[in-house]
Amino acid sequence: GMQSHLQALLSLYKLFCPELVTITLPGKKTYFKNSEGPWKAAITAVRQRNQGTSPLSQAVFLSMPQPRSRKRKWNAQLVIPSSSAYTSNLGEDLSFTSKSFPVEQLQTFPQLLQNIHHLEFPSRMGSVLTNPLLLHYMNCIKDESIYLRLSYWMGQMLQEECTWCVVDKPCEEEFRSFLETIYKAECFLQEGFSACEEFLYKTLPLWDGVCCRSEVLGLVSWIPLSSFSDVKSYLYDPLAQLFFTSSIYFKCSVLESLKELLQNWLSGNVVQADLESS
């Protein structure tokens, strides 16, 4: 296959022994990413912030592109918009609307039970996080497309709003509120979001252990069960760096979060075992 490390090796052969390489290689010169890039960007961002000369934002996400400028706040996405599919004034759409229930009219649990197979999710997936009825729907109807849409939106918002990864006059209180909203939704669903797991693995090495501490550790407690090698390198190692140099309160908070993580894993395994046995 045309992996970057193989291309780099073949390019060396083609340079010194061109008769040995007959295939055409793409004309790119950088085959490996600079691992020090994010750290250099983070140090530069902190230096500019302390000097008060930070006219432009700098993204220090690990191998992540520069976030686009935000035109709308994340909390503007938490309101369910009017359904564009509900147009009963058109005669040709009457047959369609008789089968679909406008999600903005969903107010009670009996309505959810009666129309659970006729709901169309809103265009703003963020509104699901603050709507218990739609969270109930996600628990009952395991529609992969819903989780994919929510994961994509959440990943984008976490990247753009992260206080310690983007230096653009970030508001810690808004980001704290966003993480708290996600955490409450995870507690309601009794499962973690894959977008949060990816976000934590990428940003914990850059986290100072202070900003949004309780919210971040709350998300840590809902990381989905995965292989121990991934958890050790992406979760335990970054936390250990902070653990050994922080206060006793932080140490206790980390241990409490990891205890809740273990409890959630055990609960998930019990449920899965019950489903398999039945």
Automatic annotation (TrEMBL):
GO biological process annotation, one example: mitotic sister chromatid segregation
Keyword terms of this UniProt record: Centromere, Chromosome, Nucleus
Any one GO CC term of the record: nucleus
Keyword Transit peptide set for record: no
Pfam family, one: CENP-I
Compartments, as annotated in UniProt: Chromosome, Centromere; Nucleus
Stored InterPro entries: CENP-I
Nucleus recorded as keyword: yes
PANTHER family (alphabetical): CENTROMERE PROTEIN I
Family, as annotated: Belongs to the CENP-I/CTF3 family.
Protein name (database record): CENPI protein
Organismal lineage: Eukaryota, Metazoa, Chordata, Craniata, Vertebrata
Gene name per UniProt: Cenpi
